[in-house]
Amino acid sequence: MSFFKRLKESVSRTKESVTQKFKSGLEKTSASLVGAMDSVFSRSKIDEDLYEELEDILIGADVGVNTTMEIVDRLRAEVKERKLKNPEELKPLLSEILVEILKDGGSGMNLNPDGLTVILIVGVNGVGKTTTIGKLAHHYREEGKKVLLAAGDTFRAGAIEQLEIWGDRVGVDVVRHQAGSDPAAVIFDGIQAARARGVDILLCDTAGRLQNKVNLMEELKKVHRVIGREVPDAPHETLLVLDATTGQNAMQQAKIFDEATNLSGIVLTKMDGTAKGGIALAIRRELKVPVKWIGLGEKTDDLQPFDAEQFVHALFVEDIEKESKEE
Amino acid sequence: MAFEGLSERLQSALAKLRGKGKVSEADVKAAMREVRLALLEADVNYKVVKDFVSKVRERAVGQEVLKSLTPGQQVIKVVNEELTRLMGGTQSKLELSSKPAVIMMVGLQGAGKTTTTGKLGRYLKKQNKRPLLVAGDVYRPAAIRQLEVLGEQVDLPVFSLGDKESPVRIAEEGVAKAKEEGHDTVLVDTAGRLHIDGKMMEELKAIKDTVRPDEILLVVDAMTGQDAVNVAESFNRELGLTGVVLTKLDGDTRGGAALSVKSVTDCPVKFVGMGEKVDALEPFHPERMASRILGMGDVLTLIEKA
Ligand SMILES: Nc1nc2c(ncn2[C@@H]2O[C@H](COP(=O)(O)OP(=O)(O)OP(=O)(O)O)[C@@H](O)[C@H]2O)c(=O)[nH]1
Ligand SMILES: Nc1nc2c(ncn2[C@@H]2O[C@H](COP(=O)(O)OP(=O)(O)OP(=O)(O)O)[C@@H](O)[C@H]2O)c(=O)[nH]1
Ligand SMILES: [Mg+2]
Ligand SMILES: [Mg+2]
């Protein structure tokens, strides 16, 4: 059975609305990525030129040189093993390799079943941390959980007010101090308030910081330490927010934020654009940090739990539909 | 420092040529393969890389280079020249002739438009201008508040009509207000948007048609990957950009976006953002940047000595 068929079956097991969300959110990415591959797979034979053209496309999707080489090497090996001759057959094969890389390990959220769950959100400037917190708050509220936000970005102009507007929008409280105050103190207060109010999930915002700023990374470590000291096993999740438009620097971001705060997952935002977020593949392969959520827009419900099969299905959806019609 | 990673990789790719008394075509080819990888790893768009490498190769294997007394150095010189050209050749300044002159800031979400609006206001104020900042983002939560705080920090007035009016009307009334109060420059902040969002791009066109800006600056995050060229091309096609501001160059990005955007839009990088604070904005100098990337301080002296 072609891997396309398996993908189709597998996604049909989840809610149609989820599949739809992935499909429409990733429409542009799919069109530009898989669209570009059409010329590769409609070549007359599988040869070096074909592999080279495919390499260019993967590099063009920010997959990075090393991971691209690995993917293409795996394709070569499989082609030999399965004695494939027709370039068309490479497409499902490629989708299979992508799912394998992205799926490696789990990707669910680690929530504390009996008590407070603390989620720390980190990342460089402007990637979508505060927005993601608003969306996550909405998601967990919909699940009937009691949610609280802590305004740990006391630096950027208007950051506290931005989080407060999100709090209003989704109907959850925000713990805040004044602009310029110590972020660790805000988070500390957030934890005390969460305890006092019997909150299930505390979402902690932090200021954007570039990973090469040593002082700012120390400040973040302090926030992380305070959380760990106040709540056993916390933070239960430390999520790095990555802008899908980011290139190879994202690898550096993941590495250094991981060293500072021991990341448990990634939120890949702005996947509703034309960027392909290929760097997530490289991070998954080299650092083993899984993507847990993807951001598909600026609205409250534009966040989806990441699902490797849904993701790859949405990318290749046209070909998958075509194949199933032909059968 | 930004570009550092690229700089190291390029310099090591070219190091093998540097001391050589004789350079063959094969040597150049081998070095160019390394240069290609260095540029790709730095997020330079793959099409730009292809053109760049073939241009350098063509020039480098030319007789006058390989037959010269210091062929290795000459190849490096070619790389330097092409790199400078890729980044725009010479410094490009703002063209502010209207009274008042209008600058419109555009770009993707989170690129740094609002921050740069504050920074640029401060920069122009230092040049004895009297800027007015206009809060044209009615969508992002607290975007107006953010600009107001920045306005306080740089001690400049901010014009706003709240978030219930259309950005077109806000821009128009902002310019009218500037005229009335004798401001010579107007900086219009706009909401972040995707280049493929037709409706939102129409809004920018409407603002443009209404206030006829002297400058439309695309703000680009220097960490952007391969998509930078698509973004820049789209904004340019829809609006006709006059320049680019690259932000977050205080990071350790290899900065490929900087090398790609100019070549696909033919729009010069006019400023770079070097930090979050309002004083962290600098005019962009392509020659200096190219020399820095190649560590040319010493290379140029070597060429001169030879
Ligand atoms: N299109 C799109 N825009 C997004 C997405 N997520 C966030 N944004 C936008 O990106 C911009 C930056 O988002 P923020 O949430 O302020 O980012 P941040 O990481 O908190 O920024 P700093 O706190 O300044 O570091 C805003 O305009 C958001 O609306 C997404 O998934 N898709
Ligand atoms: N380190 C650094 N951070 C910057 C620079 N320019 C902007 N930032 C930060 O990047 C983040 C986003 O900046 P904004 O000015 O809010 O970006 P924007 O383009 O207005 O965002 P939207 O309005 O949401 O589209 C903020 O955290 C800024 O402090 C820079 O040159 N260096
Ligand atoms: Mg934020
Ligand atoms: Mg803004």
From TrEMBL, chain A:
It is an enzyme of class 3 (hydrolase). Its main location: membrane. Belongs to the GTP-binding SRP family. FtsY subfamily. GO terms for biological process: SRP-dependent cotranslational protein targeting to membrane. InterPro entries: AAA+_ATPase, P-loop_NTPase, Signal_recog_particl_SRP54_hlx, SR_rcpt_FtsY, SRP/SRP_N, SRP54_GTPase_dom, SRP54_N_sf. Pfam families: SRP54, SRP54_N. GO terms for cellular component: cytoplasm; plasma membrane. It is a peripheral membrane protein. Keywords: Cell membrane, Cytoplasm, GTP-binding, Hydrolase, Membrane, Nucleotide-binding, Receptor. Residues 22-102 form the Signal recognition particle SRP54 helical bundle domain. This is Signal recognition particle receptor FtsY. Its EC number is 3.6.5.4. Involved in targeting and insertion of nascent membrane proteins into the cytoplasmic membrane. Acts as a receptor for the complex formed by the signal recognition particle (SRP) and the ribosome-nascent chain (RNC). It is found in: Cell membrane; Cytoplasm. The lineage of its organism: Bacteria, Bacillati, Bacillota, Bacilli, Bacillales.
